[in-house]
């Protein structure tokens, strides 16, 4: 290893939000963590809700159960039926009169 390029390791005091503290080696002297081995559900076998910055409340405010407004459903107008486009054959263009399209269809069926 090259001398002088690695950071110096010092004793670091780690403090958890549950109140647990322990000492380890790190490049900084103090750390604050949200979850440690004393309060993590994997190690304790219990489950607790960790809500950082109110994310659960924010979700419930935005997407919570909403009662449908009965007046809004009654006021919506009925949908208009969709227009069906005229049938266009491969031989006759769309602008051609009905007689030309009928002749093209008759020729196509007779030739088959």
Measured between the Cα atoms of the first and last residue, the distance is 85 Å
How would a crystallographer describe the biggest sheet?
A: 3 strands, mixed
What fraction strand? 15-25%
Helix content: 25-40%
Strand order across the largest sheet: 2-1-3
| Secondary structure tally: strands | 3
Q: Roughly how many Å is the radius of gyration?
A: 37 Å
- Count of helices? 4
Task: Tell me the overall shape.
Answer: elongated
The average pLDDT is 75
Order of helices and strands: EEEHHHH
What does this entry look like structurally?
There is one protein chain. The chain is elongated, with a radius of gyration of 37 Å. The model has no long low-confidence stretch (mean pLDDT 75). The protein has four helices and three strands, in the order βββαααα. The longest helix has 14 residues, at 98-111. It has 112 residues and is α+β, with helices and mostly antiparallel strands. Helices cover 29% and strands 15% of the residues. A three-stranded mixed beta sheet has the order 2-1-3, with no helix packed on it.
